[in-house]
Specification:
It is a single chain. By secondary structure, the protein is of the alpha+beta class. It has a single domain (6-95, 130-151), classed as Trna Endonuclease, Chain: A, domain 1. It is 26% helix and 27% strand. The chain contains three helices and nine strands, in the order αββββββαβββα. The chain has a five-stranded mixed beta sheet. β7 (113-114) and β8 form a beta hairpin.
Length: 152
Amino acid sequence: MKKLSKEFLGLSGEYSVASELCKRGIYAQLTMGHHKRTDILVETDYKMLRIQVKAKQGREWPGVSGVFRENDLLVLIDFEKKKFKDRPDFYVIGVEDWKKLVSEEKKRYKEIKIDEELCIRYPDGWKGLNIKSSQVNDCLEAWHKIIDKVQK
C-alpha cells in the first residue's frame, strides 16, 4: 500500500474500526472535527463508549495519549507492510491495558510524569507514548473488550 497522508491515514483507520464494529452488530458513529479525543461513539440503549483510533504505516504509533475512563477504548490499526487488498491488524486497548503500558514506561524512564488522564509527559516536553506492535500483541483482535462492554 502506498504511503498515505496523515489525514487519509487517520480517516482510513477510523472508517476501518467503524466497519469492523458494524460487522459485529455494534452501531458505531464517527465524530467529525480536529483536536478530539473521541473518534467513534458506540451507543446502546444503556451505555455509551468512546473509542480513540490511531493508525500507523511505520514502525510505531507516535505520541499516543491513551485512555483513562472505564468506557474509553483505544484501537490501534497497523497498516505497515500491508498490500492494498490486505486487512490491517487491529489492537483493542482498554484502560487496564493502558495502565500496564504506562507502568512499563515509568519503569524505563523514572523522570516522566503521568497526568490525571494517564497521559505521559517527558521532561523535554514530549507528550504521549510511542508504541510498537510488540508492546500490544496481547491486544491483537481483542474485539471482545468492546463487545463485552456493550452487552453488559
